[in-house]
Amino acid sequence: MITCKASKEDLIDFVNNYILPLKKISYKLVSYGNYLRRELSGESIVSINDNLKKLVLGGINQSGVLQNSLSEFYKKYFGIGLTKNDINRYINSNGNFEIQKNIKISSDINGLDIDDPYKKYISMFYIIKNIDSDCNIIITKASSKGFNLNYMDENLNDNFYLGLVNNPNNVLALIKDFYNASLKILPTYNGYSMFLRSITNIPKDYAFEAYKGLKNNLNSLSGILDLEIKPIINLNIEYIEFIFTQKDGLSDNILKLIGDIFKLSNFMHENSGDLFEGIKSEFEIYLSNSYNSLNGIIDDNAKKVLKTSETRLNVDSNGFIDSYNLDFPNMHISEVLKSISPLAFSGCILIHKDYNSIHIRNNLYGVINL
Asked: For position 184, what pLDDT does the model report?
């Protein structure tokens, strides 16, 4: 069993063993997506070579766009291809050169043909770029602190790009590798991510006090999920200070990366079809498994915060909740945080502090039946 202790050394191992492998693959996918935009964006469909042409026209016939065709794949996953209007123009052109030369290839990393203007993350490439950026920030920060990281961007040449253009299976394999490397960072699998997600969910002022009550139970809590890496955490105030300090801490960046990976998981779940069989929503699985495992041990105070989508607790200068709150009358905030720590530890709830108030958001609202 690989253990995860709360130390800077473990943070270095986490970056080396999980962030760097993910960055190596995300760099290839981002480079490939940028290559496609350089070669295709704004170009007429008659001016590009046949190898590239099949990426935007492959699978388009008189009846429309075939499912799982190349054109559908690149449009959905990389946000590049023909819009709905241009597809109709191409179909109706009947091979007329004068019409086709005015049909231009479009690209948008947010996705093409967005029916709902408020819907985001339509193309996978948008999420990949965010994950790549997250990794860059983490690597840069870690390197600036003197962490010994063995990473350098590969020098990708035209042979690499052409190998992907000419062989769709190579693209699918690269995406699968990227997705699998991403999953290894999620709290569902990784005890270190699970710890970071939980400890940063509790406001710094109360984090150590809240977790003292759980210190003896962390080994049992590590069995909440079937983690590949089990957390055995020696918690101390110095480490809490370390992960919360802007100068030293990387927790915010790692948590953003985890959030973007959950978005990737949801995208794959919703859009994979027959291309990637068996893809499930890791976020939904994670929350469901967490709650089901915790259901027997959470107390009445914890259940109170699960009854609504968000609970707000006003706290005075001495740390006591105001007397107007009927659910937690005259309780000290540290007692409430101890009660709900298992939920925060597993990510079922999110906690943040706003001036003299504690906000508790229920990630399971509408899913559980109390």
From this structure: 85
Compute φ and ψ for 312, nearest 5 degrees: -115, 125
Tens-digit pLDDT profile for residues 293-339: 677 777 888 888 888 888 888 888 777 888 888 888 888 877 787 77
pLDDT per position as a tens digit, 54-90: 999 998 998 888 888 899 899 888 989 998 889 999 9
321 φ/ψ angles, rounded to the nearest 5 degrees: -75, 140
Positions of the chain with pLDDT lower than 50, given as ranges: 1-6, 116-121, 214-235, 246-248, 367-368, 370
Q: Where does 166-299 have alpha helices with state H?
A: 168-183, 191-199, 204-212, 218-221, 237-244, 251-271, 282-294
- The DSSP string of 326-362 is SSSTT-BHHHHHHHHHHHHHHTSEEEEEETTEEEEEE
The domain limits of the chain are 1-33+119-294, 35-107, 298-370
Half-sphere exposure of 173 (CA within 13 A, CB side): 6
| pTM for this prediction | 0.72
Span 298-370: which CATH code?
1.10.10
| CA 54/CA 48 separation, integer angstroms | 10
CA distance 268 to 172: 12
b/e code 84-105 from CB counts within 10 Å (16+ = b): eebbebbeebeeeeeebeebeb
Instruction: Report residue 3: phi and psi, to 5°.
Output: -100, 160
Burial label, 232 (beta-carbon count in 10 A; 0-12, 13-18, 19+): middle
Long-range contacts of 137-140 (CB under 8 A, 24+ apart): 137/253, 138/15, 138/19, 138/250, 138/253, 138/254, 138/257, 139/15, 139/19, 139/20, 139/23
